[in-house]
Amino acid sequence: MTLLSHYFTLFLLVFVLTCSAQDFIQITSPTNGQTVSSKSQLTISYNVIGVPIVSPPPANATYPSGMTAEFQWLQKGTTNNPLSLNASNSLVTKPYVAGIQNKAYTSVWNIPNCHFFSRYTPSNYNFQMVFTPTYNIPSDQNQQSIVVPLTIQVNNATFPKC
């Protein structure tokens, strides 16, 4: 490659960083399709992604002010009206100082017990965690919700005293 093509590639990279939306949140746990047990704790782990140092900085480098997490379930065979529980409405999304590297966060949420899953059985419902970044100033550049499907394993061994 010639020197000119290297400069052109670098220009395109900087252009893409400054003109396209950037996802700043990456969920590391739970993972897609992860099996979780009723009445257990679900570890929520996520990274706030750092922005590479470029000059000028990306115009859309707007980190979310926080993030919410919802536990949703939807009857199988339907596409509308999911039911949900608020797992957390105050997940921290503060980036590393100057955003020069990723910053990891962890939280814990208690999964409902077997009484809940006897009403909303995993054979009849699909379950998922929905993580929604929140912003002080809404924009079309904001990161969309992150959906993580879960597989529920119900422990009925001690029902009805679970």
Summarize the structure.
This protein has 162 residues and is mainly beta. Helices cover 14% and strands 38% of the residues. It is built from two helices and eight strands, in the order H-E-E-E-E-E-E-H-E-E.
Please render the helix and strand layout as text:
Layout: H1 3-19, E1 25-29, E2 34-37, E3 41-48, E4 66-75, E5 83-91, E6 103-110, H2 114-119, E7 125-134, E8 146-153
Parallel strand pairs: 2-8
Antiparallel strand pairs: 1-3, 3-6, 4-5, 4-7, 7-8
Task: Outline the structure in words.
The protein is mainly beta and 162 residues long. Helix content is 14%, strand content 38%. The chain has 2 helices and 8 strands. The protein has helices spanning 3-19, 114-119; strands spanning 25-29, 34-37, 41-48, 66-75, 83-91, 103-110, 125-134, 146-153. A 5-stranded mixed beta sheet has the order 2-8-7-4-5, with no helix packed on it. Strands 1-3-6 form a 3-stranded antiparallel beta sheet, with no helix packed on it. The protein is elongated. The termini are far apart. The relative contact order is 0.25.
Strand content: 35-45%
**Separation, N- and C-terminal Cα atoms:** 66 Å
CATH class: Mainly Beta
Low-confidence stretches: 3-20
Task: Please give the radius of gyration in angstroms.
Answer: 20 Å
Instruction: Give the strand tally.
Output: 8
Number of domains: 1
Instruction: Give helix and strand order, one letter per element, not per position.
Output: HEEEEEEHEE
Structural class: mainly beta
Q: Largest sheet at a glance?
A: 5 strands, mixed
| Number of helical stretches of at least 4 residues | 2
Oligomeric state of shown chains = single chain
* Secondary-structure arrangement, i.e. CATH architecture: Sandwich
Give the overall shape, derived from the CA principal axes.
elongated
CATH fold call? Immunoglobulin-like
Question: Mean of the pLDDT scores?
Answer: 83
